[in-house]
Design brief:
The protein is of the alpha/beta class. It is built from 14 helices and 15 strands.
Amino acid sequence: MTLPTRLRLGATQWVPNPIAPSLQPPIRPRVRAALPGRLKQAHRSFTILGIETSCDDTGVAVLRTSEQHPSRARLLFNKKTTSDHRRYGGVFPPAAIRGHAEALPFLGREAVDCARSSHEGESSNIFDLIAVTRGPGMSQNLSEGLAFAKGLAVAWSVPIVGVNHMQAHALTPRLADALERVEARPSEDQGEAERDSRPESEETSPSFPFLSLLVSGGHTQLVHSTGVTNHRILINASNIAIGDSLDKCARLILPPDLVSSNPDVMYGRALEAFAFPPEHPLEDYEYRPPQRRRDDIAHHQSVGGWSLLPPMATNKRLEYDFSILLSHIMNILASRPDIQESVELRRVLARDVMKVAFEHLIGRLFIAAEHDPTIKEASTMVISGGVAANKFLMRVVREMLAVRGMVHLEVMAPPVELCTDNAAMIAWAGWEMWRAGWTSGLRITALKNWSVDEAVEGGILGATEWVKRDR
């Protein structure tokens, strides 16, 4: 059977057993005693299957690395589909669950075929580890991915790691660094020992400790990370996440034809493209970062004739609150009907709401730095999550740090394709947990709420079903 070039999610299709040809156990008919303990390798490469189903993206990836060169990696396969929620105006859980159920077998089959075609080791075992998102996220969505992963783990007799989604976002720049270390595809006589111009002993970058600003549709957190499983949340969103807030504001600001033609419900991404079109590029936008706290909390007086009050202007609580932005946008549009008829005024409003939101993100960082020396001592801040793909955000961050005396803080972000939810970051986080000596038992279940903070029910290792493997 020929795999369709585009999956039609939501339509029932009867096909003659599409899974069996490629998802049969790619191993000799023997049980490896390494489930979930020590994995005995007969070849140098280490191949991880990553699975992501925390929300509406169904992702599958194949990542290859080795225990001899753990800071280098090759991404052999990384694809995802997104279920269509436009008729609902936002993510509709039943549609997302149906999308996962329909897409996982096809993506899984393609991933297995890709891994098999590139398998060059002496052993017939193609995969050494399965990494799957366990939480946080939508419980039933997570369960779809977990059930699929556990089935494969049993069939192939390989270990499994249930990955924390936010931990994976924080570690994504380390994945990007590992991918960059491989200069070119290895020649035939090199095998899996990819060429690398960097010293053998150099650690994956960024090295611990570092700060992480995790910004997505479901989470907004400033995290201090001192190890793979050691994290402390410095600032958290009190209600709505920045990505969700921008999506909701964008639905009101974008012209109706752009909303209806958007390929998904990620309207915040469309908001940046609308605000800075080719004729008004970001490079030409005159941005003046607030130089002190009183500038952070002052009303933003727009060239459009309205004003926006920054969130939490009256207090210094260490939390984020983006709920007020939507109320401001609704009030402005209600009092200014002329905005509805003007594309240019809509663009000004789009720039304004992003400016205020992004300055709120970094303004709270400076407040936290007043009381926590670990922030001032940090040399690196990772920005990860879907909103990290926003170039205006990166400009605001860098310019605010420069004018507020924190120019020493290096800002790192993954490539755009790794910012949004993807299975490659899950595979890498699974690899990092494996190297730290952890696998998961087969009784793992979805965790809707699962904090990375060690002070909240033990953080990552506070979840049940962790197995300490014999290294």
